[in-house]
Amino acid sequence: MLKFTPEHEWLQIEGDVATVGITAHAAEQLGDLVFVELPEVGATFARDAASATVESVKAASDVYCPLEGEITEINQAIVDDPSLVNSDPRGAGWFFKLKLANPADADTLLNEAAYNELIA
Amino acid sequence: MNDRRSHARTLSLCAKAPMWRRLLDDQTPLLQTPLHDLHIALGARMVPFAGYDMPVQYPAGVLKEHLHTRASAGLFDVSHMGQVLLKPLSGKLEDAALALEGLVPVDILGLKEGRQRYGFFTDANGGILDDLMIANRGDHLFVVVNAACKQADTAHMQAHLSSVCTVELLNDRALLALQGPKAETVLASVNPAVAAMRFMDITDVTLLGAACIVSRSGYSGEDGFEISVPADKAEALAKALLDHPDCEAIGLGARDSLRLEAGLCLYGNDIDTSTSPVEGAIEWGIQKVRRAGGEREGGFPGAARILAELANGPARRRVGLKPEGKAPVRAHAKLFADAEGSQEIGEVTSGGFGPTVEGPVAMGYLPTSHSAPGTQVFAEVRGKYLAMTVAAMPFITPTYKR
Known about the structure:
Helix content of chain A is 21%, strand content 38%.
């Protein structure tokens, strides 16, 4: 199941695990990323808590945790090469995997059509 | 969990800027340079800067624009800056030069015709009102000042110089900067005469039939030219330069990362009324003749403090800072002597990512005791204390054609 947040994150949800990244729209607005800071595996976050940081040449931005959960895996590739987020934000540019505390909460997120309408 | 939000801009601000963002707070529309339509046509992302609607980047993006400038030739619109003519009422340039020396700790009398030099207006406390370029144009002086200060600088000059010169802020000329190792190739394709110019020369050059004032100078750390062109000829000239295969349009985002790597100050960030030129490490701009023992010693605002700092050293100094990790450390980050953050000793005034250096770079103020290259200090970033090393500037090797 593919879901989106108004803060421009996407979630690919399988069972109770979501792979999380930022959308192409967000990556384009941020510009070339030069630094990514990811949370630690095992860290837990409330819904909408700041969980990662991205920096473009000019400024830093927070990436919010879209749903309450625990980080089970992080994508070291984007720490080593932040440009992956710009070149492949929905694929190789994923940020982390999140074990959802309440998988049913995903129903409150946007589907792709609703997200596209938001950014139109 | 540290509150990073106070330090960061939220992703939700990424949404496309609505029309209201193009207006100043008081609903006054932003000013436009003569190249405004061209920026839009080139797909620029526009932002407000010093009251003007300016291109921060083009579709290539800040990183590519920065790297292109260091590899080839980049064209910047800097028409928002102030171009001021000082004409001596007596008809004798020395009178204008001596009068302007009353406002800047610089040797202007000794500046030869066809030459330009860096300077700064000081105030009674020895702080800096603006930094600028001053050129000897034979029968008048040509001064270029920062956009945000141009009204105040013009008023300052008028208040102090109008008994000796006319002070005119031009409103009918654009200013372009062409920077990079291919800048000479690109500009010479329009007029070969520019190839003979050396760093800090300034001369009249006809470009596509337009009477331009061209200096071999810039704000990037690369060889290049700054071109004052009549406003109604600016778009045609910019298009002709951009037609050259080596030349690309570059926005203000890359302009900032280029000057940061080159160790150049940004007025309002790295130097301001709270910093003296000696603290700001730009005292090289004060020639011997204006220093203690010189023929025209002092005679500028704040001379007592500035001459004392030249003699005894300043309390603090602007230095280059290289973060030891990958995280950029930006303006306003506090600096500490210790990794625990108990001894606050200074502040970062500019910082970001250096695409050519391939890592973060910054500059800031530290006490003289902590200002030697190699000194380790710590910057507070999002609740952590990140190690940084004092580094000599520039971070890259300039390629000025001296």
